[in-house]
User: Fold these one by one.
Assistant:
Number 1:
Amino acid sequence: MQNPLIKYNEEEITLAHKINNLKKEAGSHSPSIFTFKQKLPELNIKIDACFLSNPYATDLFLNYFTKEIINTGKIRELLEFYPSQNQVISEILSSFLNVNYKNIFIGNGAIEIIQAVIHNFTKKKILINIPTFSSYYEFVKPGIEIIYNTLKKENNYQLELDKYFDLIKSEKPDTIVIINPNNPDGGYIESHDIRKILETVREVATVILDESFIHFAYENDNFDPISMADLVTEYPNLVLIKSMSKDFGIAGIRAGYAVMDEKRVKELLDIGFLWNSNGLAEYFFRLYTRADFAYHYNSVRIRYIMETIEFIEQLKKIKGIRVYPSRANFILIELPENIKSIDFVTALLLKHGIYVRTCEDKIGLDGEYIRLASRTSKENKIILESIKNLFK
Amino acid sequence: MQNPLIKYNEEEITLAHKINNLKKEAGSHSPSIFTFKQKLPELNIKIDACFLSNPYATDLFLNYFTKEIINTGKIRELLEFYPSQNQVISEILSSFLNVNYKNIFIGNGAIEIIQAVIHNFTKKKILINIPTFSSYYEFVKPGIEIIYNTLKKENNYQLELDKYFDLIKSEKPDTIVIINPNNPDGGYIESHDIRKILETVREVATVILDESFIHFAYENDNFDPISMADLVTEYPNLVLIKSMSKDFGIAGIRAGYAVMDEKRVKELLDIGFLWNSNGLAEYFFRLYTRADFAYHYNSVRIRYIMETIEFIEQLKKIKGIRVYPSRANFILIELPENIKSIDFVTALLLKHGIYVRTCEDKIGLDGEYIRLASRTSKENKIILESIKNLFK
């Protein structure tokens, strides 16, 4: 391993090797903080800028959780008793989302929904834009054909609609996947273009629209919330997937939902997904839909977006790196040609205790990249200084 | 609704109707305590004898949890960060179970594993003993044939091995399901007979052995723990499923595991199940495998078995009901012919605040039954007195 950025001592070289091995073992996802602690207790991670979440919303949630669940002793019943069944939780979300509960499917994290949808609704051929979240192609069952639409670097990895439509016409996939904003580049498709896509691809049986990062996107100066969930009645081929881990930093709770045609929800519930939510996820959804909580959440959502915009502006000023446009809470950064992504990540972790994501496993990216999460403004400043320091 | 046991006032009649409707909506599973609270807040449930768990183990777990997770503030990281991936948690369980981690699959509750196994390994025909846990036939996908082996009432719903083997020979299912002890009757198959079954059904591709209630079974006076998990290397067709909710009363956490052939674990992980454990489930498994915890757990496990045996003896003395032999933590009880199960359950709930399970939705039961969970010795006494009171 060679790293032109930095000189390591022997101890650090050993640790760097261990980090790289751990990364390799984890495959196309980063090792979790727990895995790091278990296997590399000598490592001191100060800032987890791999983890894509709004830290202010985490604090907000934890304040409510501490007051209502920990301090009251109600934690016991959340752990002890069976959580409600899927459609009972759908009912809780229904009026909040302005969608009939029969169109809502609750998942053990969005990841379970991705798995369920691809396993049950994709019949022959799936079209996936790359770079993307790897589970979309990894979870595809043997026998299903995967077609990749490679987004172009020279176009900032933005989806080109006309070419996309041509590809759909010629390949005739039964499933297409759109993540908006896209992961790992943060590229955003405006609402009117999403509508245009939905209008154009009516022949595609299943249109997966993953809005896991949509709370960080904006189309006006008020940062009004955006979602296409209510379009599901108009477009029965639409399957909208939403993770809650990104908005609230509650990846440990596992909470996500989907909005889709009533028949699809029934088809899934008829073959399983009975108690797939845990007690804390049920509490989360009850809280999330409460007016008092929603009000506070919107404030911290907007604060976080504004700070992320500022973070991106500052990153752009660092010479030697290329910062891709993002309307998500993370930024795709291209490194200079002579620096390997894994070396940069290891250096940042060893010298500054900052954990960011390599993108070497991401198919469809041309060059050496990292994906950097926006954290608190204080942490963002430390991240900025640390990156500058590595380039000195 | 007529109930010869009891006279209701008007308020109670309304409530009784609501309870029955809620039961109907929940289908083949009982409404959760949360669902009851949400929809019937006027109902006062004092003892949940529908819920199959060891309450002493719940206390033990919660003591550790409070000390290690709540009081230290570590709850935050359990909620915030991604839990470890499936095989990292398998490694934690590996030495405790004395099984290679590659043979262990972690589930979001046993229910997720039942779903995964039946959806992915059952190809054409499944043989299910009834009465049983309904998910085993409900989760079967369209196109798969279900053969039922009806256990006989006159034989106390015990599995008759020779007839079972004949049926397997003639029907040639690719999957068979054995729950031991069986749900809802508690009937137990001795270890030497499980071995005999495994020896005889080597031609059956998938043998599901559900040991979710095995911690409550015993074959000697020391109540030594029983499990067939280590047989998976000898019998590659064996898929052993284990819920943890029954042993610890932590249904809200969703934790279960399976032991199966390494190729099967890989097949499942190749198509999903990436972050299907939540942070609390990961903590649970780390705690469960610790020597100090295991020592205390075994004490409360034995205490609970002994009290359950006593509870069964006392129930047998009540005239008019038939108590079926059980080596689980619940008891199947047949009611007198003139009493409907739902009426008995409603009366017990309205008059005594005790929630027990009707068995009217259980296919394969001939007569009117309830399934009664063993709770603490104090609660068991109240349950006994309340049932006696209804029969006065």
Number 2:
Amino acid sequence: MTDIEFKQKLENYQTRINECLSTILGKPLEKSESATEAAYYSLECGGKRIRPLLVLEFAYICGVPEEKVWDYLPIACTTELIHTYSLIHDDLPCMDNDDFRRGKLSCHKQYGEDIALLAGDALNTKAFEIISNEAINNVVSFETACRLINILSSAAGFKGMVGGQVIDLQSEGRQIDIDTLTLLQSGKTGAMITAACLMGCAIAGEYNSRIYADAAHYSALLGRTFQIVDDILDVTGDFESLGKPIGSDAQQGKSTFVSLLGLEGAKEQAENLTNQSLAMLENFKNNEFIKMLTQKLLNRSY
Amino acid sequence: MTDIEFKQKLENYQTRINECLSTILGKPLEKSESATEAAYYSLECGGKRIRPLLVLEFAYICGVPEEKVWDYLPIACTTELIHTYSLIHDDLPCMDNDDFRRGKLSCHKQYGEDIALLAGDALNTKAFEIISNEAINNVVSFETACRLINILSSAAGFKGMVGGQVIDLQSEGRQIDIDTLTLLQSGKTGAMITAACLMGCAIAGEYNSRIYADAAHYSALLGRTFQIVDDILDVTGDFESLGKPIGSDAQQGKSTFVSLLGLEGAKEQAENLTNQSLAMLENFKNNEFIKMLTQKLLNRSY
């Protein structure tokens, strides 16, 4: 796969994911439109769309034919709904109190805290409504839908994303060790990245199989790399590329992989993890794109 | 059914629902326990448990044998998880800013706003994890689980409970008419009461059938009665029975069924709706308990 072919496939994914997200909530009800508006506002703030992309790509590398993958766009986008709800709530004054997200005003600065809270709540719920709908409409079997809902909900909940956020809150203003930081991030960021890969497997009918375990292993490595690179970019990046202020972790006294390992140590670990990820991908067919993506995520600047 | 038999059945429901709720989230993870603790705190604040009770009772009156009903306790309790998350978020300073709930400190006063927010988020997600688990563990079919998840998620989301809360926010500090108040309450309170009844039907294998439509009709009448009685109790009740301050609606300048219809007008309407509800229940077998419950909900003092 050439660089140009990679870029085309990536952009095609992102374009179709963005198209799907722009109508996924349906039309707002006349009298209760502001929460839907606020949710669309945050959904359309951009981002790399890495989670829905991983769902679709894992469906593909687990055996779903290339042209059939698009049937699963709404299901793939449920990961972005959950991710977006978590960002909206994370930006609230009682959490990180961030006024900006991806270069735009955060949801509560634009719509008020109450509407932002409710928009996040309804996005969370909507993810599960969509997957159950796709089963009722025969896009996936009822069994597959239940597997998908189980993967997504357990990744997002008390023992996944929310669990990681709680450890994050408990770690505020004090030094934590590398094990705690790894546990924190495996919940906060890693759980949803793993969920995306496993949802792709489940769509392809792979469940609790050898290839499912390989996907879980790969996604754990990818999730860790992803977060380490985030921490590196918080030191070496710029506002324009990232759409958020630089150095905010250090300013808030947060322990990061950079503060614990040093910049060079963090870079080295990200490279090691990427090499392990690439090795794991050798177990999958049609792996050219996902391998290039894994490599590019290591070297991203945004 | 005698009054004593009614009371025994009601207490049995509530006891078993409370037992189920007290372990439903599993054990907290060591390092991320505070959100789980906060969620249990709010789940264990009591309440009438009317939603899970309706799930179980509708399963029963739609044909599930009495002793088999208890298999569906965890599924029934998911309605209480969603209800509890909505109460936790509703009490937050950016929403109703209530310091008390059922006579105890509200979740954010006890655990902080950040943990309360996350506990609510994870309770929302957990509901869907539980239902999908019950399918994976063969308690219900995958199809039934998808129907249940679809009913619950659409009732809780943008066009249901959250939609009603948005209209509520938009109505703050101004007079609204009876149609808007009815629309607001049919979302905010009604949607989840309807969901509970319909989930009971779905467990019994009734879906989009005549009896399903009857349950939908009954539940809409019950939901409206329930809210009117709530509004009446906000004027005529006392702190001890209700566990919250009296007169808070009037104090906040909220339009209620009492402010719009007058106390006598509201009482009359609640009675009319109850009579219609009772007539609708004639279409169900084994309806002695649900009829007495419907009557008692009209005359409740808490």
Number 3:
Amino acid sequence: MSQSAPRETGKRDNAEALARLREVLASGDEARIAASVAAFHPSDLADLIESLGDDERVAMLSALPAGVASEALVEMEEEEHPEEILVALAPRKRAELLQQLPADDAVDLIADLDPEERAQLLAELPVEEAGELRDLLLYGEDTAGGLMTTELVAVPHHLKAAQAIGEVRRQGREVEAFYNVFVVDEQRRLLGTVPLDDLILADPERPVAELVVPPLATVLPSMDQEEVGRLMSRYNLVSVPVVLEGGRLVGRITFDDVIDVLEEEQTEDIFRLAGLYEEEVRGEWSDAVRGRLPWLFLNLLTAILAASVVYLFSSTIQQAVILAAIMPIIAGMGGNAGTQALAVTVRRIALSGKAMPGRWRVVVKEVVVGMVNGAALGALTAALSVVVGGHATLGLVVLLAMWGNILVAGFAGSFVPLLLDRLGIDPAVASSIFVTTFTDLCGFLLLLGLGSAILL
Amino acid sequence: MSQSAPRETGKRDNAEALARLREVLASGDEARIAASVAAFHPSDLADLIESLGDDERVAMLSALPAGVASEALVEMEEEEHPEEILVALAPRKRAELLQQLPADDAVDLIADLDPEERAQLLAELPVEEAGELRDLLLYGEDTAGGLMTTELVAVPHHLKAAQAIGEVRRQGREVEAFYNVFVVDEQRRLLGTVPLDDLILADPERPVAELVVPPLATVLPSMDQEEVGRLMSRYNLVSVPVVLEGGRLVGRITFDDVIDVLEEEQTEDIFRLAGLYEEEVRGEWSDAVRGRLPWLFLNLLTAILAASVVYLFSSTIQQAVILAAIMPIIAGMGGNAGTQALAVTVRRIALSGKAMPGRWRVVVKEVVVGMVNGAALGALTAALSVVVGGHATLGLVVLLAMWGNILVAGFAGSFVPLLLDRLGIDPAVASSIFVTTFTDLCGFLLLLGLGSAILL
């Protein structure tokens, strides 16, 4: 065997592999092309294909056996648009590719096509398979139905262990990596599962019904994928059955889908908090400009709002120009404290799921934290202002403004995401950018308002 | 069977269950206590225990059978300090609990104890088991060695399929949820795996050696847990073998560990970006103050640095007070653009792993994005300034300052995390708080510097 060292991403020797591949591709010899990548894992092959030009990609996938080509397509990054390669293939080839794939992967692949192209592809498939894909396409991409595969191993409850193993052998040939055997009644309603290891360990004569473990959890096809992920992660499930309202088993979701969901949600949360929407991690600069500029314009409007507060206090600043220097400290520290409260709250919501206990106690906690941190930071900044500015009233103004702003930051950083969540909106939309604008506005108002009232 | 509806977190009916549990606990009747929670999943039981007071927790775990109690302890949140309950139990009981657990879970549980308490616990265990735990304790908590379990099913390569199934039956009784059977040579060096489903499907007379699949990946005990997660997620592995340098099999890591790692890393990334270090999602206000205040003080110092730039330009502001109103717009927009660049870059590094291709091209992309967005935002803000301020030179100053600051933001937001990553430091440490301070400083310098040079 190959004593393989741990491979990290398989991208290290990419350049060399790519050069070799291009040479073989140019030869047009299908057997040589297939042989040159035979040793590759689909994920690594997908990386290689992503490094090719559009025409090369099509030539490559045309030359590969359908089983290899289809798996590589599935492993490509979404933003590389594997579905466009699929469409560019010869009709017979692309139908063959789709048939090789588990139904959930096939649906993911064609879900991004426009309706006419998709209808064309489905028309090229055998009626039964096309019907199955159409059924799956009806579920939203972000739901359990969109995530599940319909291929699974299910045995009737009246079999004995040895018979069940026989049945598993028969069905297992068609099904990729299964970890649990589902047990169903005559109407294909789910009774439970038998872990594969238990089935092997059992006395061959024992009825399967005695080995059945009731499912720890089942999910409906309409369940949000994030909830599915939370459920499987909570109970350490390697797979979870998807059932209809009446209990009929229609599919299963496996751990690898959940890992993908977790990574997706992770990127989304971080991006939203940073004021990024619909941006791809590896996108081009032009996509980044298109994605970010509208939000920056929106932020510009809110920044102008904050600035107009300063403008209104022009004469105050002219009389006590030191306030102009203290302004950014008050506003900035409020923004920082607000961002901290926001991150903790958003994460707490994400980890707790819908049934978050003690929701509003979080706001109380953040206000208390703001009160304490605000007093400490306010006192320090006030002392410094008195030293530089030379009179005690300035210290009082700075203390109150800093204290107030950090308290408000704690409130806004926790209340806004909790409120959004309660309203059914993604709490991460309350990005730090908006909280920052809010604390800017508040900080300016407090400092300059108090300044003109007390100081002048 | 119970046609269980999808349960989301099991916390919904917590209050009622808790009241009932307290009643039973007060009775002190061990059999009744055990019976009252017999139907609970360990995760749900752990939630219940977390709602109890310290003394109740100990009473509860003393009353439960060791198998149930140990699993519930493992499922408790780290911040609830399950190890303290363990230590509070009677010596015989706690030794029994530790012996019930897979070695990796037992190690996680006792890793947070102080050395004397840990030594005491280990002394209460049989020599062999204590030795195994001591071995695992030597690996860092965040490494493959710290993550792995040493319990696994491994068969010698010379067996036939039917013999191997017999061997799996024998070993399998001791091992929790295994998905792959490892195949080893006489020196227990890993040859590969046989998926459990393949073993069942195989002709009973076929030698195991013919069924062996070389491992897609193996990891060394020293590998960072984040790398392990990336590897398993990339290749959709349900488990990965841990081997020593010579190829000797010492443990395995399963998908559920990886899901935990992913969630942990996700929290860590979001927290670091928000300037939070070592804070617990469900921590108390006093912990939050202790965790956040030092960083806010550090930020205060950098904010004072930025403010002192403003202070230096006091006379400029006095002569053109409108600059004080424009200041926060320039600084704030720079901060927003920098946060966006930072989030994309940090996420890109996290998803790519150590071998990130095209590292420095990311900086070029972000500078280009900053150039385009800066020009657009600068032009708009400049136009507005001319309308409000009444002279064209002010527009020029504003345009150049905004443009420059957003360009700098793109550079800093991408270069700093990439540099940190190259230096082996977590790139998320380049939190948006620091980028924001940097763009504040830069924005003030540009606006006020250009203002005093061109405007006055």
